Structure formats: C-alpha cells, structure tokens
Amino acid sequence: MKLYEYEGKNLEELKEKALTELNANEDELYIRESEEAGGLFKAKKYKLTIATKDDVVKYVKDYIVDIAKYMGISVKIEAKKREKYIQINLFSESSSILIGKNGRTLEAMQLLIKNSLLNQTGFKINVILDVEDYKEKNNRHLEFNVKKIAREVRKTGVDAKLDPMNSYERRIVHNAVSQVKGVTTHSEGEEPNRYVVIKKEEE
Q1: Which residue among 54, 68, 158, 159 has its CA within the 20 to 30 Å range from the CA of 122?
Q2: Is the pLDDT higher at 173 or at 36?
Q3: Sheet holding 45-52, edge to edge
Q4: Which structural domain range is residue 66 located in?
Q5: CATH number, domain at 102?
C-alpha cells in the first residue's frame, strides 16, 4: 500500500501541502507526525507519514478477495468509511463458512486484516468486519438479553456472572446495562476467559 511522506520545518505548512496535494480533508487520512531535533545550526524538522482511507479500503477489499479465493468462496464487499473505523460487510452464498462456529472465522479474518494493515502502514486502523449483518443481529440480541438479566438482578439483588466474552462484546454489555437504572457492571477474570458481572447498585 502506498504511503505518502512529507518533510519540512513548519508543521502547519507541511499539513497544508499534504492536504492540497492529496486533495483530501484531514478526516479522510491517517496521519502520523514525527519530529527530528535540530543540531547546533540546524532547525527542527517535521515528518508526516500519511495513508488515505480510500487506499486502506482498496487494500482491505483485495485482501479479503484473496482470502476468499483460498477458501474457494466468491464474495461481494460493501465498505463504509466512518469517522473512527472502517466498516466492511461481506455477502456470499457461503456466508456460514465465512462466519464459522460462533463467529470464530469472522473474528480471525478481522484480526488478520488489522495485523496486515499494521504491518503495511504502521497505523492501528480499526476495521469492523461483518457478514450479512451477522454481528449486528447478534449485538441486538445480546443487548436485549443483558437488559433482561439486568432488570432481574435489580429485582432480586442476586449478582449475574455472564459467560466469557471478548472485549468488543463486553463493551456492548457495559453500554447496554448502563441504560438500566439501579444496576452496575464490572469485568473479572483474565483473557480469554474475562467476563462481565452485573450487580445491583447499593442504595
């Protein structure tokens, strides 16, 4: 993937030059700033390393197509550039293979993509990978269930220890339960067996 590099003595002018040449707004780019200290008679220098979101999306699409080929699967890809992440949704007649048992293949693909992007660019780029809204549906189901459990905890006063979840799922639980008055959450245990506990707030 192509990275763009700019060097100069004035950081603001350097950014302006980069945005003009790339014909882009700052929110369409991943920018890393670095600084080189000046010597006795040398001024301080700045360096910008830039990747465009368009290039990242193209790289991710090509990467997914290559993975799908190895799996013997044809896939259609829908990509959306959000402010803090890139959302990728896959469509295929073999969607169950792409998802895998309990979404494990999907999670593995997402991790491969993130690691590949980090190796290629040096940027930690947040990519949310889904297959025909599998995660979205699961998330809504998870939110519904934990709110139901939270209301039961509030009623009975008995703590609820949920099954181990990854950090993404735990965040969904914390957010969902925060919408139910009178209960609170915290995480316990070590990865990969870390889990959420829902408990009644002390009056």
Answers
A1: 68
A2: 173
A3: 4-8, 45-52, 29-36
A4: 54-132
A5: 3.30.300.20
